[in-house]
Amino acid sequence: MNPLSPFQAHLRPYRRMLVWGFILLVGAQAVQTIIPLILKWAIDAEKAYLDAIEAGLPSPTFMLVSPSRDLAAFAILLAALGIGQWFLNFGMRWYFTLVSRYVERDLRTTYVRHLVRLPLAFFQEQRVGDLMARATNDVEAIQRFFNHAIRMSLSGILTFVLSFGLMCTLDWKLAILALLPMPVMVWSACYMARKMRRGYGRVQEQFGAMSSRIQENLSGIRVVKAFSLRPFEIRRFGRLNDEYVDLNHHLIKLRSLFYPSMFLLNGASMVVILWLGGLRVLEGTLSLGAFVAFNAYLIRMSMPMMMLGRVVDEYQRAVASLGRIRAVLREKPQLVETMSGESGLRGDIEFRDVSFAYNGRVALQNINLRVPAGSTLAMVGRVGSGKSTLARLIPRLIQANSGTVLIDGVPVEELPIGMLRGAIGYVPQDTFLFSDTVRENVSLGRDDPSGKGVKRATDLSQLTPDLAVFADGLDTLVGERGATLSGGQKQRTALARAVIRDPRILILDDAMSSVDTRTEEAILRGLREVMASRTTIIISHRISTVMRADLIIVFEDGRIVEQGDHDALVARKGIYAEMFRRQHVAQELEDL
To answer: Could you give the C-alpha distances from 105 to 33, 93, 111, in angstroms and in order?
Structure first.
């Protein structure tokens, strides 16, 4: 099996660069291989000259002028080859390192592009920190393999082949003896590879768990501080960190045994070769220069054997990391087309026998409901009764287990999802703001963040008075997840973000729970003009928010138990009427 087969798809676009890198690598190895031969020639020439002088014979014909000048010529030649080798190594490293960085970029881009196309259900089952670790630590492990291990592998193979070939020309018997440790080294490397692959998989999983813990602590730092959880979280992270070290112990043991063993085998081989080669020199069957060159090649040939451990190490780490990334890439994405502002949808919404369950827990049961285009639907009920679940079905953030959701008579599954979501302005319960300015958060995804639309959206959401207090107004940085804004300011920013899209369907999921009643009334008053020509769905626990809706439905355990307008529901004296009575009394007490 080709060991590079798992990575071929990622290397294929850069074949030309790899070819150039390989050509330069061959050139550098060829130059490096010639150097011991030049040393042999220089030593043999000098020895021949000294032997001739000692015997009273004329200087050898290969001595052009004098020994010193010939040695100077050899030195100049070696220096020139060294400079040439420097340029060849520079170019070779340039190409291989560049390829590794391009592959890193492509892999990370592919991974992130795939992540954002996955359905919402995937992220509800995954740890954010682990997904981040795959995009950072795992991708970096693959880049390191492409940068170091591939180059070392090719260099090692060429070094071994060229060195062994030239050693055979000098003394083929000694060359064969130099190969004796090779089978043991190869078997050891294969054995270690099998052990390390499983180990690295577990280590990378544990690193993901640690990343998740750090990410959760930083995201929830206010909770950690408020509940004085510092010692508890430190201990919990310490346990994860200790487990990470424990998992590495096995790998450390393998590496600690493997590398010294390689040095021991190689050292024993060199002792034998030095002994046998020295005897040949004394016998006169091998020249001193040839013996020096042979040992230089032996040292060069031993380097690939030494590097074998590191190559196996980085290869197994890269294979384990690639497997973790591909596990995410195998997840089926949700097809998303380009967002379209001109959707052509009117906003007529219908639910036919819709049911939905979260991991076996029923959230909606046989919902039948129609919301005419341009009308306002309000949903009330206890926490967990199914209101938000019903709202998420409209933009296909989740998909019904049974039944059909239709917009303008067309099942939402048949509508291009880009067009569908482009026609919807959605303010979820959990308000999320990006770590950017207020302006960028309001105009998210729009080409013209400085246009009049931003001003109109902030006016409608009653955010403009707050902006006047901010030193930088719309250009105020909101911090990570909007940390510098109050809950009400975050909700109004999210509301402005939904309104600026000029949607055909506006979904407000408890979007004003953090604002006071006066601000809420001002927002609703401003939104009435917007809501008049759009289908609007409002989810709220406040009766004052929903009482002017065309249709109000009351949820209980995933079912619609009451529906009608405000007056009809109050007259019915059911759940809605009881909610209205309690809130009315509470408001009167506040006004006292």
So the answer is: 36, 18, 10
